[in-house]
Every structure is written in structure tokens, then in C-alpha cells.
Design goal:
Elements lengths: L2 E2 L5 E3 H5 L5 E9 L1 E4 L5 E5 L3 E9 L4 E5 L11 E3 L13 E6 L7 E10 L9 E9 L4 E7 L8 E10 L2 E11 L8 H4 L4
């Protein structure tokens, strides 16, 4: 069963998954908010574009690469974004970032995952917004964040995956902010490295 993450919590990904993880998926899902038409009945859906990003940092806390809707693959090929979803339509994850932990370059110490509302809505205005970490080998959910409960913020630094004693660990940062892309959060990310 997936662990519901809370701000500041640290976990061993291998321990939570019950096996050594080689590949993980960061899944982001949400539903379009239904507009109320005349007399409170259906009036279509409001466009909501949430974006998942993964920023890579080295031992000196320098950004080495980023995977997001404008760059769907890391330069080394270890991290792949499945593509930008601009509506939240459909079931399951609307965007995914797939990380092959075994091929992340040795000089990369940390991977920081962020979520931003490119269209500007705060998370309380987005239905069923969740972010999760999944073991790609068996599709088992390891950890989950509920974004909808975050209130009047339109971005969040979700979590940091980092190497520690030859193992990948995760720190649930859970820091909220405001900004349309990961770049608006870099000054908030730096203290967590």
C-alpha cells in the first residue's frame, strides 16, 4: 500500500517498495474542473494545465539538466517525460516522468520533482490533483501526495530523490509556492539540496 507523504518526511524507496528499485515513475494526475452553466448545470470544463518537472543537481548543488514539457528527455537519456497534458482529461496519470535509477549519471546527487499550474489556477481549484511515485517494474504505488488540499498555491516542490550510501532515498519536501514553471522555484529548491 502506498505511503501518503507529509511535508518533511524522509523514506527509503527500496524499503517502501520492498525491493531494490531500478526504475520509478513520477505520475501527476488531475481532473478538469467542471464549469457550472446556467442554473448550476454543466457548462463544459475549465482548461487546467499542470506540469511535472524533474531538475537534476550535482554534488556542488549545480543544476545539470532538467526534464519538463519543453525538454522531454535528459541529455543522458536516464529520465523521460511522457509529454505535456494540457487538460487533465482521462483516467490515471495525465503526465509521467520515468527515471531509470541505474543510468542516472554518477555525478548527479539529487533529482527534484516539481508541479506547477501553467494556467495559473491554485491547487484548491483543481479536482483530484495527485502526485505519486510508482515502482515501474510492477506498477505498485510507493508514495502519494494529495495536491488539491494545498490551498492557494499554484506550484509545489514535491520531493527530492537523492543518493545516500549507495541507495536512493526520498525526502518529501512539500513546499508550496507560486510560479508557472520549475524555473520560478529554483530559489526555493536550493536550500533543500
Amino acid at each position: 500500500m502506498a505511503l501518503n507523504l507529509s511535508k518533511g518526511q524522509k523514506i527509503s524507496l527500496d524499503k517502501e517498495a520492498g525491493t531494490q528499485l531500478t526504475q520509478i515513475i513520477m505520475g501527476l494526475g488531475w481532473d478538469p474542473v467542471k464549469k457550472k452553466g446556467l442554473f448550476g448545470f454543466g457548462g463544459g470544463s475549465q482548461e487546467i494545465d499542470l506540469d511535472a518537472s524533474c531538475v537534476m543537481f550535482d554534488e556542488q548543488n549545480n543544476q545539470t539538466d532538467v526534464v519538463w514539457f519543453r525538454q522531454l528527455k535528459s541529455k543522458d537519456g536516464s529520465i523521460i517525460h511522457t509529454g505535456d497534458n494540457r487538460t487533465g482529461e482521462g483516467d490515471g496519470d495525465d503526465e509521467q516522468i520515468i527515471v531509470n535509477l541505474t543510468t542516472v549519471p554518477a555525478n548527479v546527487k539529487s533529482l527534484v520533482f516539481t508541479v506547477n499550474s501553467f494556467t495559473g489556477q491554485n491547487f484548491s481549484q483543481v479536482d483530484n490533483a495527485t502526485c505519486r511515485i510508482v515502482n515501474a517494474s510492477n506498477n505498485q504505488e510507493v508514495a502519494r501526495f494529495n495536491l488539491t488540499t494545498l490551498g492557494n498555491h499554484n506550484s509545489q516542490i514535491m520531493a527530492k530523490l537523492y543518493r545516500h550510501n549507495g541507495e536512493w532515498k526520498m525526502h518529501a519536501i512539500g513546499e508550496t509556492g507560486n510560479g508557472r514553471t520549475f524555473g520560478d522555484l529554483i530559489s526555493q529548491i536550493t536550500p533543500h539540496l
